[in-house]
Amino acid sequence: MEVTKVLVPVNGERVDEEVIKLACTIARRRKGKVYVVYVIQVKRALPLDAEIESETQKGEKILKRAERIAGELDYQVETELLQAREVGPALVDEAVERGVDLILMGINYKKRFGEFNLGSTVPYVLKNAPCRVLLWREPIE
Amino acid sequence: MYIIVVGGGKVGYYLSKTLLSEGHEVLILEKDAKKCEAITEELGSVIVRGDGCEARTLADAGTERADMLIAVTNEDEDNLVACQVAKYKFKVPRTIARINNPKNERIFKKLGIDVTVSSTNLILEHIEEEVPTHPLVHLLTLKGGSLEIVEVKIPQNSSVAGKRMKEIDLPPGSVICLMIGKWGAQVPSGDTILEAEAQVIAVTRPEAEEALRAALTGS
User: Fold this and answer.
1) Domain assignment of residue B23, yes or no
2) Which residue of B has its CA nearest to A88?
3) R_g (Cα) of chain A, nearest Å
4) Which residues contact A81 (CB under 8 A, 6 or more apart)?
5) Among B95, B120, B145, which residue terminates a domain?
6) Smallest CA–CA separation between A46 and chain B, in Å?
7) Nearest to A38 by CA among A82, A89, A91
8) pTM over 0.90
9) Which residue from A43, A51, B16, B148 has the highest number of Cβ atoms inside 10 Å of its Cβ?
10) CB B25 to CB A48 under 8 A?
11) Strand order of the sheet with strand B147-153?
């Protein structure tokens, strides 16, 4: 698998660390780039470009942690804070804009109404991303 | 401009598509899950599944900051409620409702809906223009429906043909602005003689329309 650009969405969960490390390992083979993004979901009640200070601070903190994790592997990542109405379309747009070869997503094992549930972002990206998508699921706890 | 469109049917879809291409921020509210899915595929994340008549749904949609709400569902009642909630609860500056039954137009106006669009009336007006079977044709509605510009063709056998304008008993509030006869267009004065077969353009009130038609056709 020849990968030169990897997009890694993060959301501050423990799984972020694993996927950032994996993305760096994959990208290192071809001296590729790793883009780490955090998407602030803006409610319709606010304009898309509204400044939500608490969310921005949270996002910046998560992205700084991502840089630190990559730094431990001696790898530099590019980070970006995005604002969107929905996370899935924002990730696909970002992947297209940056021309990435791979989106590497990490999720936890989550249940909803007693059933395993992927949420809405992962299925959207799997269905709509033009590039490869690698899904990393954490073990069942 | 932030515009909320209630109803994701054919009208709502094409309307939203056009508004988006003009650079507006658009959000569609639609109850039907299949329609939501189809529109998301086509237009992206510009649709929220929910009932546009419910205050909760409208609040989540950010109606408070909307510049305009357009209700275009198939149900007149839903369009009325969505516009009223938007106008009176969320203070949306402009509300526009689609009306399917033309009889509801007056009620909508009375209840404060800013603009109403009746597809039935629009089609009828076009038919009247293209196929003039009726001596009176609506050309334009003015002042939110309180005045209208109409065209009346003076029949050959009309009792008013050959009379001076000042001799014709027009209903109150009606004004003849233009007469297009065999000599061309002219702004009529009191002494202008009404020609048979001439087209008369007049401004009138909707309630005086029938009386104007009778006065000019002599029937």
Assistant:
1) yes
2) B45
3) 15
4) A37, A38, A40, A56, A59, A60, A63
5) B120
6) 7
7) A82
8) no
9) B16
10) yes
11) B136-142, B147-153, B199-204, B175-181, B184-186
Model pLDDT for residues B155-183, shown as the tens digit of each residue:
888 888 888 988 888 898 899 999 998 88
Q: How many domains does chain A have?
A: 1
Same domain, B105 and B36: yes
Nearest residue in B to A93, CA atom: B44
Q: What CATH number is given to the structural domain containing B39? A: 3.40.50.720
Query: What's the pLDDT score for residue B218?
Result: 72
Q: Cβ–Cβ of B44/A89 closer than 8 Å? A: yes
* Res. B120: pLDDT tops 90: no
**Chain length of chain B:** 219
* Structural domain that includes position B193: 132-217
Chain A contact present for B89, CB below 8 A: no
The residue of chain B with its CA nearest to that of A92 is B44
CB-CB under 8 Å, A44 with B60? yes
Per-residue pLDDT reduced to its tens digit, A13-62: 999 999 999 999 999 988 899 999 999 999 998 999 899 999 999 999 99
Across the interface, which of B25, B45, B65 has its CB nearest the CB of A45?
B65
> DSSP letters of chain B?
-EEEEE--SHHHHHHHHHHHHTT-EEEEEES-HHHHHHHHHHH-S-EEES-TTSHHHHHHTTGGG-SEEEE--S-HHHHHHHHHIIIIIS--SEEEEEESSGGGHHHHHHTT-SEEEEHHHHHHHHHHHHS--SSEEEEEEEGGGTEEEEEEEPPTT-TTTT-BGGGS-PPTT-EEEEEEETTEEE---TTPBPPTT-EEEEEE-GGGHHHHHHHHHT-
ipTM: 0.72
